[in-house]
Design goal:
Elements lengths: L3 H12 L18 H36 L9 H35 L4 H19 L2 H4 L1 H4 L2 H22 L5 E2 L2 E2 L10
Antiparallel strand pairs: 1-2
Helix pairs in contact: 2-3, 3-4, 4-7
Amino acid sequence: MTTKDERGERGRRSERGQRNGRAGRRGYPYRFGPAFIARWEKRLSRTILIGLAAGVALVLVGLALGGSFDGSVPEDDPRWNLVWAVLIAGVAVGGLAVLGPLFLAFVLGGLAIHRFGWIPGLVTYLGMLAAATGGGLDEDVLGAWLDGWLTEAGVAALVVGVLGFFLVGHLARVPMTVAGVRVDRPHPGDRD
């Protein structure tokens, strides 16, 4: 059983920001601490670099294998399937090494700002994918139905996602600047 004094002490402790492991971060505008952010930034950067290196290595192996077959192996020989498999694997590994960490970066970045920050992070990520896919592939690959609107929908999702980041940033009172100019209204207690 707790006494009234103990409940009061617990309330004062939570007001000072010492609950949920946030002690010592008073005035820090993000939900995640600097060490957490730095740790995940390093992990995601390393994942991208290692994955890209592995993808490039696979593509180079596929090209070397294809070069050794060129001229000496007929085009209908099934050994060419090995070359294509290695090339496709290299492109897939390199692509996933970029897209996976980017997805986590968008979502974790949004969550660092606000508990609903994952929503603009996801919308921005999907907008980036849609705009890049629609702009990079032609009607033969996408089909007439997707080719007509995918790029425009991606750009619209990018705009909505960025505006969503500004909204959750404003709700969380995170200082925001565009081109070095502060665009939010400073809240009492904020430092520039």
